[in-house]
Amino acid sequence: MTEQAEIRDGRMDDMAAVRSLLVETWHDTYDDLIGPGKVRQITDKWHSEDILARQVEMTDACFLVAEAPDAGIVGHAFAYPDGEGVFLSRLYVRPTAQGCGLGAQLLGDLTRRFPDVQQIHLEVEVNNVRAKTFYERHGFSVTGRVEHCGDEVGVPAFVMEKSFQSAG
Ligand SMILES: CC(C)(COP(=O)(O)OP(=O)(O)OC[C@H]1O[C@@H](n2cnc3c(N)ncnc32)[C@H](O)[C@@H]1OP(=O)(O)O)[C@@H](O)C(=O)NCCC(=O)NCCS
Fold it and tell me: What is the number of domains present in the chain?
């Protein structure tokens, strides 16, 4: 359990901590599902500090971190506009901080950053039941399936989507 975390925009000097969060949380989540070797290969490819640094500078994207006074960066979310909607590329909470509402807070803050969005979509690994249930509780439903999550061969995923009514 961590003290109350503050959610804020990511900064360039957060990149090492965000990578560390992603590596730890990926191993915790996916080692049993796709194997630790594959996890290492993917996190090295997708979550290098260089790639994260390019993403934090994307002006149309939202790169959030949750920072706790006693534990540093304990959560992270990244999303960007994609076609008609927004693609939620990552939502990760450190294992020791999960189940305390941080994932819900990050998702809520991120959604508010895109007030005119028609829909948010994401891909979730088919055996990641906890995350799929989390998204369903937050109004997402499965709209399809891809065999190569994020173009990663042999990692099938559900496509999930949440639609928003326009206010007018
Ligand atoms: C999926 C994930 C982002 C959700 O974040 P989280 O902070 O754990 O989510 P929340 O705490 O908001 O809600 C999750 C659970 O805690 C419960 N919860 C919410 N607020 C709570 C609180 N204040 N106290 C206790 N439990 C709470 C919810 O009922 C929910 O129950 P569940 O364990 O049956 O799912 C997080 O668990 C995670 O990073 N998982 C591993 C990585 C992953 O799979 N990411 C998604 C990739 S697509």
Answer: 1
